[in-house]
Amino acid sequence: MENELSRRSFLKSAALASGAGLLGRDLSLGDIPLPTRAPNPKPLAIASANGLAATAKAMEMIAAGSDALDAVIAGVNIVENDPKDMSVGYGGLPNEDGVVELDSSVMHGPTGRGGAVAAIRNIRNPSSVAKVVMERSDHVLLVGEGALRFAVAHGFKEENLLTDEAREVWLKWKENLSTEDDWLPPHDANARDIGERVQKALRLHGTINCDAIDLNGNISGCTTTSGLAFKIPGRVGDSPILGAGLYVDNEVGAAGSTGRGEANLLSCSSVMIVEYMRQGKSPTDACLMACERIARQTKELRLKDDNGRPKFNVNFYAISRAGEHGGASIWSGSQYAINTGEPQSRLVDSAYLYKREK
């Protein structure tokens, strides 16, 4: 606990110091020094822990000269197409009605463009649709039926995304459902013991975020998910929201997230991580600051443990334009995938705010 408090105190002091230095200044980008780009930035790809194959694929394409965005999308497509990963794409766990709804966002550093889709049904690769939204529309985010119709108009094929395995998990949840679910009674920030569902192996969520630097030193990223399992239909988490589940600035770096999307939506952590790196923080320290920000912003007692810490977890992943990488989570035990050109990607332990009790 002493080490945790020291770490948090350091982060708070650093954040206050950096903020104090900006008081009274014109906050235009020209006033903020940009990190120095390495003369020959080394390509790399980073992803959440389920992205070993994704980062390997991304680096294979980057080595062959591909743009970073094409590479990361091809990487996450592997996970979207894998029915064994029940947190993304085909085989993802459904909403409470048994329907799979997917979210995704992309950002292209060199052009500063982005695209996203949310609550899209019947299309297994929402990341690819998000790229088409970026390239073939004047919009950034399309949702629901409109996103589906846009995808079909551009040649994406509709299919049933609910696998037999995911259906069995959903049915088990339905059969064990108590009166406690995501529908909450009227409550205030002091309410406890509401909104708790059958958890452990039943309440599942997951996502894949993948960001990369290509041979030209350009940065792009993608986040894609099936969202919180058994969610209220139409629920949208942080994954398709630029600034929350993903953010890229070609002059600074990129960041993405997995975990409790609601918490990340309230803090817009990915854009904050990029801004922390703009101020000179390393990717790991920037991710830790985002974790601390969420912990500080979590006020509802139902979301906090007896020590006032968030019950949930959020994980962050970041790369800088100089080729540094890092990750952090609210609770210990998380990892991220990294590939800097090796034939196989590897997992790296993430930094953390709180050590999980055994």
> What is the overall number of helices?
9
What does the average pLDDT come to? 87
Structural class estimated from helices and strands:
alpha+beta
**Percent of residues in helical segments?**
25-40%
Compressed to H and E, one letter per element, the order equals HEHHEEHEHHEEEEHHHEEEEE
CATH superfamily: (Glycosyl)asparaginase
* Rg over C-alpha atoms, rounded to the nearest angstrom: 20 Å
Q: For the report, how would you describe the main beta sheet? A: 8 strands, mixed
What is the overall shape?
A: globular
Give the DSSP E fraction (strand runs of 2 or more residues): 15-25%
CATH class: Alpha Beta
**Euclidean distance between termini CA atoms:** 14 Å
Unreliable parts: 1-38, 197-204
Gross CATH architecture: 4-Layer Sandwich
- Neighbour order of strands in the largest sheet: 4-3-2-6-5-1-11-12
Total beta-strand segments: 13
CATH topology: Glutamine Phosphoribosylpyrophosphate, subunit 1, domain 1
- Provide the domain count: 1
Q: How would you portray this structure in words?
A:
With 358 residues, the protein is of the alpha+beta class. It has one domain: Glutamine Phosphoribosylpyrophosphate, subunit 1, domain 1 (4-Layer Sandwich). It is built from nine helices and 13 strands. An eight-stranded mixed β-sheet has the order 4-3-2-6-5-1-11-12. Strands 7-8-9-10-13 form a five-stranded mixed β-sheet. Strand 7 and strand 8 form a beta hairpin. The radius of gyration is 20 Å and the shape is globular. It starts with a helix and ends with a strand. The N terminus is likely disordered.
